[in-house]
Design goal:
single chain; 396 residues; alpha+beta; Immunoglobulin-like; four-stranded antiparallel sheet; globular; binds heme C
Length: 396
């Protein structure tokens, strides 16, 4: 028994990431708002601010699904997924003992339960996630992500892009992953996302091409504005070159417009649809089961003769060849995404009588299969976001 305890203690300290407590003075973005109003407002509308299970139906139902199908307690799965979704959680691993206690109904008021339901983590990926990163261990094994890849600063020390900033509320320090190499910060979580059995279903780091930085597009161009409205410099606030904290991505219809380029060509028998992706990462990318829809309408004049819908997505199988979400996958279907700076060509037979054809391309956050497995209700998951469309006259 003693040996067993010793082993769990040693393993616990080896594999559990080091937690640094964030005091109430810093844990909520509301505390930053008095001086950094613009930034807090921009961030509040981002999906980083919704990465907690209470704010994202898809994430919440995925957690429940993983717990149900693996016969593990929901709290244990919440702790596991918090690695990237809620990295300031105060418990970083649970283990067998917790499962036994959970089955016996002995976990009420436990450290794990408190950690999972702590309001301190309810903001998801907030200011004290990115700005309290002190070190990123790129020398670690590539499977270690989120909390297992970083070390936190001392409570109250903010990492930022400026070497000469001064604040009355917190200490500051500058790091290269806030200035010249911000991709390194993004890849702490946006890389090597894997299923319970180790199948890597997303790796934005390995698919990435070119020199552009993630922040160039997802935080926009640098522009002049106030970092803080606090009169810190000779009784005045100061303008600097800043970016937008909106982190706009797949959930925002507006930025899908023209994210892909479409080209149509016809021979006498086939229609050739070319989709070119000018972005430095695949599309769809990110979480599995995202989908690009290609809707082809064959027409005679303005009258539609036939409509065909192609889905570029990935599907997953768990045990016994059953359809599943990415996190339980042991197998994944062929990758249909459009590679970074690359293209995908679809060939379709033409139909008799059609003298023109129209192609419309849309994006959807969740494909039919997973929406139905998880019974997702919010309209956003099935909403079609318009990307691009084109028509072509067919020669007889
Ligand atoms: C996902 C990571 C991430 C989160 C979350 C985040 N930031 Fe930032 N922040 C950055 C990066 C990266 C930069 C540097 C951008 C640049 O200039 O290239 C930055 C820059 C800043 C700056 C310097 C000025 C500027 O606007 O460029 C301030 C101040 C700041 N953030 C405050 C905040 C506050 C307050 C919050 C919470 C509401 C927050 N940040 C949330 C990543 C993040
Ligand atoms: C009382 C005002 C005040 C509050 C409250 C405040 N800050 Fe700041 N912060 C400042 C000032 C002033 C600066 C420096 C601005 C400059 O140099 O232009 C700053 C700079 C920063 C920077 C950039 C540091 C660098 O070296 O680039 C970050 C990041 C930051 N704050 C994060 C936060 C976060 C997160 C919170 C909330 C937990 C917060 N601040 C609360 C006043 C404040
Ligand atoms: C601590 C982990 C973590 C870090 C660091 C991180 N992200 Fe994220 N990011 C996430 C998670 C988790 C989500 C999904 C949240 C959700 O949908 O509930 C996300 C979502 C996004 C999205 C999709 C938003 C949408 O509307 O679809 C974009 C874009 C994004 N992050 C960009 C970045 C960039 C750029 C950086 C680096 C400056 C970064 N992230 C750093 C974890 C992280
Ligand atoms: C040249 C601009 C550009 C750069 C640089 C860029 N992205 Fe994107 N990204 C896009 C566009 C356009 C989309 C598709 C529309 C959308 O979701 O915003 C996208 C989509 C995404 C999505 C949602 C994908 C999905 O289908 O779920 C995530 C997450 C994301 N980007 C993260 C990143 C990260 C992390 C980096 C850096 C490694 C990065 N992006 C670099 C333009 C860019
Ligand atoms: C390696 C870090 C990491 C871990 C661990 C992780 N995720 Fe994620 N997750 C992400 C990132 C990054 C995104 C955003 C990708 C995107 O926007 O497409 C994301 C997005 C998601 C989404 C899509 C949310 C949306 O609003 O569209 C779901 C669902 C999800 N994760 C479920 C889970 C579950 C369940 C677990 C635990 C079993 C988990 N994740 C563990 C990094 C992680």
């Amino acid at each position: 028994m003693k040996i067993f305890l010793l082993i769990t203690l040693v393993l616990g300290s080896l594999f559990g990431a080091k937690v640094v407590k964030v005091s109430e003075k810093y844990e909520s973005s509301l505390k930053c708002k008095i001086c950094h109003k613009r930034i807090v407002e921009e961030w509040s509308n981002s999906w980083h601010a919704k990465s907690h299970f209470s704010k994202d139906e898809y994430f919440r139902k995925s957690l429940q699904y993983v717990s149900r199908k693996t016969h593990r307690s929901l709290n244990a799965v919440k702790v596991e997924c918090a690695t990237c979704h809620n990295p300031r959680i105060s418990v970083t691993n649970t283990g067998e003992d917790y499962e036994i206690a959970s089955v016996m109904g002995l976990t009420k008021g436990s450290k794990v339960e408190k950690a999972v339901n702590d309001k301190a983590i309810s903001e998801g990926i907030n200011c004290v996630v990115c700005h309290n990163v002190d070190k990123i261990h790129d020398e670690y094994d590539k499977t270690k992500r989120g909390i297992n890849r970083v070390e936190w600063t001392k409570n109250g020390l903010m990492t930022g892009p400026f070497k000469d900033a001064k604040s009355p509320y917190h200490k500051v320090q500058s790091h290269e992953f806030m200035t010249t190499n911000p991709n390194k910060l993004c890849f702490v979580c946006h890389a090597n996302d894997r299923s319970e059995s180790g199948l890597v279903f997303t790796n934005m780091q390995s698919e990435y091409k070119g020199k552009k930085k993630c922040v160039d597009c997802h935080m926009g161009k640098r522009h002049k504005d106030y970092v803080s409205t606090y009169p810190m410099y000779n009784g005045k606030a100061r303008q600097r070159m800043v970016r937008n904290h909106g982190f706009k991505g797949a959930h925002f219809a507006s930025i899908w417009r023209n994210a892909l380029a479409l080209k149509l060509q016809a021979t006498n028998r086939a229609l050739r649809v070319e989709l070119y992706n000018p972005q430095p990462h695949n599309l769809p990318s990110g979480y599995g089961s995202r989908e690009i829809l290609v809707e082809v309408t064959y027409k005679k004049g303005t009258r539609a003769l036939k409509e065909e819908i192609l889905s570029l997505t990935r599907t997953y199988k768990r045990k016994h060849h059953k359809a599943s979400t990415a996190h339980l996958a042991i197998k994944q279907s062929r990758d249909e995404s459009i590679p970074a700076h690359g293209k995908r060509i679809l060939r379709l037979p033409l139909i008799k009588g059609a003298d023109n054809v129209e192609v419309k391309v849309y994006y959807r956050l969740v494909n039919d299969e997973v929406r139905s497995i998880l019974e997702l209700k919010d309209a956003i998951w099935s909403k079609k976001m318009f990307i691009v469309s084109k028509s072509l006259k067919l020669h007889k």
